């Protein structure tokens, strides 16, 4: 965080007098906002953030892949000593049974090095968490200590080369052999190799392997097995790898587009035998004679329950992505507040980048979105904690958690990539230098868009839930009633899509654009616009998909496919609404009046930016008259202007200091250079030695005495 | 390029029967299209492409920064032997005076390694080209041979830490000393260090340095000087660097977000003296007594003439960006045509990714845009060649060239980044592995968006030209006539913005969405929509900026700033129109009927995608009725469906083979794996040993005898 004394004074920050509305006079209380943003697990988050800023945990740029991997493993050992990474585990094993607090801290690791965050996520959030959530108490007691204290680095072997998103179709088999009371883990073909597994390339000595459980010639679907993969008594090779155990093989995934501190790799199994007791048996077990049993009767529900227990990965990626976006914005806003280019109103004074119309917009709108994403993530953490701490672990809560995590993870990881690209470009050539951090962050964050659930697939999950909820409204409804609904809906469409409603809006706004703008600032209007869009899109798709229920599979598939784009778009709209609601809800918790005023304007900016993004939809569906729609952009610009003087405060309040930003251009060096240059020119002018410019001489000779 | 036999048969490619319109029956003649796309300098382009595919020129991933830099230098030495890089230079120096052919070949280097393309660009396109374009014939003869044959690796020292886009404000001074007949090159403060210079970090021994030329205490503005920077008789240090000459200093820029095969660095000068004769003197020279003279009287025009001679950088970046986008698309389309995930209509058959609604759209729409960008670049090369070969070197042509280069460079570099991100994600986890190429390409291309002119700044240049052209219409117009124009414009706005015109459209389309769709496929409609948008936006901004002419500087600056976003948007619209026109023009040159039919559909898709992107604008400005606007997306989806069977042909026709794509997933390996998996399951079913699934058993037991 920039010390208050270093931050340019308010007055200095904006050279454009422009719209001196109330918000620019309000002040953000950076310290109290910063505390508020630490959220429910403030102490844990603050201490994890401090850890992330320690030199030992900071990423060193330019290391070779091997050095980077070893450094990250070393950092994980240091983390074990700090205890934070154990918080989600049971108390009797040294944990704190505090899943929310655990994630709050875990997410902050991204500021140290995304490789550390993700490799720690593999060890404690996937490998150990699978033992915790899928294992029996006996298995937890037996297997967790080594996983937790990192004496057993482990891989989470779910994804296969051939099947990523479609986990149910993985091809690895675990066939029970009652003779020896063992499972035989086997990879039947190349596409069934486990791939992209952190810890598999070098460090892992065990893995939780997902495979089709087959016993008595019946396939009971995907289950997880604890499988040792490397011989801990063997000799390490020149790359530090222990030899694979018999029947186990693999490859290093090698260099990646980012996250090169993680040793991703592939694994395959040639009839590898593991004891019957190493099937992680909470949701399904096999008796010595081969009889399968499960507390969950339906194979489908069993599968989703097992997978659902791993939702924390998505929750934490949402938080980490928001943090990464904040880091990029904090760097770029600081630089844009100092960097000057081209003269404006006065010939000797160059304009600060953040005073340019395009620059203001490209940075301040994402600041608003980052706040929305932050507050939405806070709500997601609450939901996650209530389920996983057992406070309120109901099927409905779990379902909400999964849907919300999918919606927010897909939205925030996309947002982080867009922001990191925009901020890189906003910093020009300097943004491309590794010393200014942004490119490395972006490279690392890239894969967040497709791992722990490909974003497109996740958004479809969300859309399906929205459709299901929509359908529930009509459960038990008679055909006659349904017909009425359809007619009403058609009537609604007719109303919105004909000029009637638009005409009414237009009449209401006649001659007064301010009325239209004021209308847009009303939170109820914003809520109505955002909510209506989700509901209408869902209803439209539901209606379009209705024939699929009675169609043959091919027609149904084609129909679904033809509406896939709208489905995904509806899910995005849902995520946007969630964020807006979270932002709005958070405003109530802000006590300082000035801060609340600025944040309210920021929330309005976020809301309006969504409306602007989807303006065509609002127009096509008659939700906004052309007249109102035309005010959206100009009003949004006014909000950006009002917020511009607060931009630095808003990013400072995120609480990331130089030890987190680690960008040379965000250290004040640009201002020093500008000051030095201006001082040089000032002295030169004062000395009387300043050369005259040919241009001004020509003007003078042409223009005669009256020219200056 | 995939051999025809390797390509999946047409019938296989689309599993969605859907809209079997004419285009899917037409066939692309890949070979003849490929030849057509080689363009005007087909032989040169083909031979440069072959060079780019040679092993010696291919990028080796995972090299250290130092190794990568040395490899690229070595590759440049090999290029000298091939002669291609000299084509733009005068014949008496070994060149061919063929600027267009030179660039056509040069751009292909990006397929070998973007670092090679850019470092070659620094040496021959900037350092040597500055000597060629800014030097006198004597200076060319004296300085070019060493620059051309790489015995003098050189830096192009224009940008300073403090001034990138605003070249006129650079602070380095070159003060003439008549006593010794030398210029004194000096860096007055830290912000005036030259920065981001290729060849400055390690290899450069000379530089073309841009500085404010001061003689007789008059500043004549920015001029270029030939300045030796390293002592070629000195001893190399452990990094292979020769010592700096006295007074010269510098730093290595170190690691970057990409392009790490280039040794970017900083330079500064402490009263370094160069002979009077090493001012590159074509556009300005200093007599021994210090008297300045120039063939161009106006300092402003002189400055822009000097800078204008360097436009080829932008032209070549446009071409290279389009090539990079093609490489990403070729990889992702091939993979999407083979990769399967989730079952669809039949339970044993998984769906090919490219048959999914979202996937089709995310890849095929950019394929259309890549074609548009390709043809637009061809036109840009023609324009460039006509000016720089002297065929038609007029001020108007130069102005057109500069505007077009700025518009297209800004658009295609943005496009390349978006495409490389989209294709990376479309390939899932595999896309993140370096072995699949896309992430490295994207990292390298990142800086294309801000170097050789920041895209936002370039688009403003374009917008200013559009405004100037708009203003010219009214040159010499009387106030009365002007008033009439304003009234007419207001009338036009009233017509378009009220429901009158919309109502007329709506009436015309009543009950027949096909009529609305057919209307959109008419090229004249597309042209009218795209042209009208540019013209209207320009006219709107011009009108909004009118008060600036008589305002004080501060008000004028603020007004301009308030409309900066629209200015940039108008420039983008102009670039989009250029591309659409180039695509349309190119259709006439396609002789094969099937190919022409498919490409026409592709052009329609491109046109419609632009209309969809800006749908809100068309609605707000009354250019499309809601009814027509609603057909845009559904019609666009139909075009995507029609083109889907041709996707592989369309990317194959770009002519990049495995030696250029160098992506494991684009080698057919995915299909092999899928075939192996399917064969395994086929045999398993045939063997009768296939385990039954618990799910189907449960269904059977529940459903009784009638269930299957």
Structure description:
With 708 residues, chain A is α+β, with helices and mostly antiparallel strands. Chain A has two domains: 1-38 and 311-683, Butyryl-CoA Dehydrogenase, subunit A, domain 3 (Up-down Bundle), CATH 1.20.140.10; 152-298, Butyryl-CoA Dehydrogenase, subunit A, domain 2 (Beta Barrel), CATH 2.40.110.10. Chain A is built from 28 helices and 14 strands. In chain A, strand 12 and strand 13 form a beta hairpin. The radius of gyration of chain A is 29 Å and the shape is globular. Chain A starts with 9 loop residues before the first helix and ends in a 5-residue tail after the last helix. At the A-B interface, strand 6, strand 12, helix 11, helix 12 and helix 13 of A face strand 6, strand 12, helix 11, helix 12 and helix 13 of B. Chains A, B: This is Acyl-CoA dehydrogenase. Chains A, B: Residues 308-467 form the Acyl-CoA oxidase C-alpha1 domain. Chains A, B: It comes from Cellulosimicrobium composti. Chains A, B: Residues 523-666 form the Acyl-CoA oxidase C-terminal domain.
Largest sheet of chain A: 6 strands, mixed
CATH topology of the largest domain in chain A: Butyryl-CoA Dehydrogenase, subunit A, domain 3
Oligomeric state of this protein: homodimer
CATH class of the largest domain in chain A: Mainly Alpha
First-last Cα distance of chain A: 46 Å
As a percent range, the share of strand residues of chain A is 5-15%
Q: What's the helical proportion of residues of chain A?
A: 55-70%
User: Which descriptor suits the 3D outline of chain A?
Assistant: globular
Q: Total strand count of chain A, please?
A: 14
Largest interface: A-B, 115 and 116 residues
Please give the radius of gyration of chain A in angstroms. 29 Å
Number of domains of chain A: 2
CATH architecture of the largest domain in chain A: Up-down Bundle
């Amino acid at each position: 965080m920039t010390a208050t004394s270093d931050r340019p004074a308010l007055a200095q920050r904006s050279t454009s007098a422009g719209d001196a509305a109330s918000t620019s006079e309000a002040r953000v209380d950076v310290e109290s906002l910063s505390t508020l943003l630490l959220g429910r697990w403030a102490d844990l988050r603050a201490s994890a953030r401090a850890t992330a800023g320690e030199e030992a945990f900071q990423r060193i740029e330019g290391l070779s892949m091997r050095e980077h991997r070893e450094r990250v493993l070393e950092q994980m050992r240091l983390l074990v000593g700090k205890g934070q990474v154990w918080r989600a585990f049971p108390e009797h094993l040294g944990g704190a049974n505090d899943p929310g607090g655990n994630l709050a801290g875990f997410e902050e690791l991204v500021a140290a090095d995304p490789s550390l965050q993700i490799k720690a996520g593999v060890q404690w959030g996937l490998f150990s968490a699978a033992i915790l959530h899928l294992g029996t108490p006996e298995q937890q007691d037996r297997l967790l200590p080594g996983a937790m204290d990192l004496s057993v680095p482990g891989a989470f072997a779910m994804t296969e080369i051939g099947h990523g998103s479609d986990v149910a179709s993985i091809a690895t088999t675990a066939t029970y052999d009652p003779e020896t009371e063992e499972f035989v883990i086997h990879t039947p073909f190349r596409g069934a190799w486990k791939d992209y597994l952190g810890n598999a390339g070098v460090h892992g000595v065990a893995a939780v392997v997902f495979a089709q459980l087959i016993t008595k010639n019946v396939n009971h679907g995907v289950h997880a097995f604890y499988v040792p993969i490397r011989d801990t008594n063997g000799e390490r090779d020149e790359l530090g790898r222990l030899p694979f155990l018999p029947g186990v093989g693999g490859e290093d995934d090698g260099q990646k587009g980012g996250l090169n501190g993680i040793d991703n790799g592939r694994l395959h199994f040639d009839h590898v035998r593991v004891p019957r007791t190493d099937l992680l048996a909470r949701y399904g077990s096999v008796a010595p004679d081969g009889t399968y049993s499960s507390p969950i009767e339906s194979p489908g529900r069993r599968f989703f329950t097992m997978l659902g227990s791993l939702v924390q990965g998505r929750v934490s990626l949402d938080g980490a992505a928001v943090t990464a976006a904040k880091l990029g914005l904090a760097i770029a806003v600081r630089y844009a507040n100092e960097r000057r280019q081209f003269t404006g109103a006065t010939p000797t004074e160059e304009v600060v980048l953040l005073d340019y119309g395009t620059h203001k917009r490209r940075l301040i709108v994402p600041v608003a979105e980052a706040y929305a994403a932050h507050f939405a993530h806070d709500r997601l953490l609450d939901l996650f904690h209530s389920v996983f701490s057992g406070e309120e672990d109901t099927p409905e809560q779990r379902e909400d958690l999964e849907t919300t995590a999918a919606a927010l993870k897909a939205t925030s990881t996309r947002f982080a990539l867009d922001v990191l690209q925009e901020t890189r470009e906003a910093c020009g050539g300097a943004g491309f230098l590794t010393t200014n951090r942004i490119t490395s962050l972006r490279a690392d964050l890239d894969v967040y868009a497709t791992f722990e659930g490909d974003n497109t697939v996740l958004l479809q999950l969300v859309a399906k839930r929205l459709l299901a909820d929509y359908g529930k409204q009509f459960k038990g409804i008679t055909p006659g009633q349904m017909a009425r609904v359809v007619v009403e809906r058609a009537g609604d469409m007719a109303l919105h899509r004909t000029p009637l409603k638009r005409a009414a809006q237009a009449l209401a706004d006649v001659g007064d654009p301010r009325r239209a703008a004021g209308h847009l600032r009303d939170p109820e209007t914003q809520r109505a616009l955002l909510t209506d869009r989700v509901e209408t899109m869902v209803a439209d798709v539901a209606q379009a998909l209705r024939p699929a229920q009675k169609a043959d599979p091919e027609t149904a598939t084609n129909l679904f496919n033809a509406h896939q784009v709208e489905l995904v778009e509806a899910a995005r709209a849902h995520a946007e609404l969630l964020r807006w609601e979270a932002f709005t809800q958070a405003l109530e918790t802000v006590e300082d009046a000035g801060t609340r005023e600025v944040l309210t304007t920021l929330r309005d900016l976020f809301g309006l930016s969504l409306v602007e993004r989807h303006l065509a939809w609002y127009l096509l569906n008659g939700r906004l008259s052309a007249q109102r729609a035309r005010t959206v952009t100009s009003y949004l610009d006014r909000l950006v202007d009002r917020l511009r003087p607060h931009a630095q405060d808003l990013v400072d309040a995120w609480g990331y200091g130089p030890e987190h930003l680690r960008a040379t251009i965000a250290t004040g060096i640009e201002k020093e250079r500008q000051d030095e240059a201006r001082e040089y020119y000032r002295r030169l002018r004062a000395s009387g030695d300043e050369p005259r410019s040919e241009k001004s001489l020509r003007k003078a000779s042409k223009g005669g005495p009256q020219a200056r």
